[in-house]
Structure to design on (172 residues):
């Protein structure tokens, strides 16, 4: 992989975070279940924070920071499809969709300049964590009134723990 392919790759991954943010944002709008809203709020936070973390990397290499609306719109369109599925089916599909991004970051890690390695390594781990999150027990819906366990994603976000979740449930 040459330098231009590396730059194209990090740009594609930024676009994927914009798509993921659009997906999570729209899906939150479509669901009425408060537990799903909370879990999707964590997913939205994960996508948003990953996008923000990538910006200095892109800027250092002169890659555009412009968020193309077509990527956000593609995410919103995907959310419509996810929302039409059962939660279990949607989480299984989401888990499968996350894995290629981790593999793409892994391929970039192999050629990343030394100053990029920590962030690219973080993104590999983050995408693997998102993939495991979507396929985990934690994503299974709990009976109404039962407490949701602490998400495995919380250490990867700046969000408050589940005990403070009412602020997240107000997302609309």
């Amino acid at each position: 992989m040459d330098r231009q392919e590396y730059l194209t790759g990090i740009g594609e991954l930024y676009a994927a975070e914009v798509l993921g943010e659009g997906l999570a944002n729209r899906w939150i709008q479509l669901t009425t279940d408060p537990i799903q809203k909370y879990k999707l709020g964590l997913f939205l936070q994960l996508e948003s924070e990953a996008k923000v973390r990538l910006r200095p990397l892109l800027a250092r290499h002169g890659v555009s920071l412009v968020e193309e609306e077509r990527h956000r719109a593609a995410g919103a369109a995907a959310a419509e499809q996810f929302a039409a599925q059962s939660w279990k089916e949607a989480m299984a599909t989401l888990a499968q969709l996350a894995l290629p991004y981790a593999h793409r970051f892994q391929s970039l890690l192999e050629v990343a300049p030394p100053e990029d390695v920590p962030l690219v390594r973080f993104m590999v781990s983050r995408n693997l964590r998102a993939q495991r999150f979507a396929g985990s027990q934690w994503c299974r819906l709990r009976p109404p009134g039962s407490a949701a366990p602490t998400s495995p994603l919380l250490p990867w976000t700046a969000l408050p723990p589940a005990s403070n979740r009412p602020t997240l449930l107000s997302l609309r």
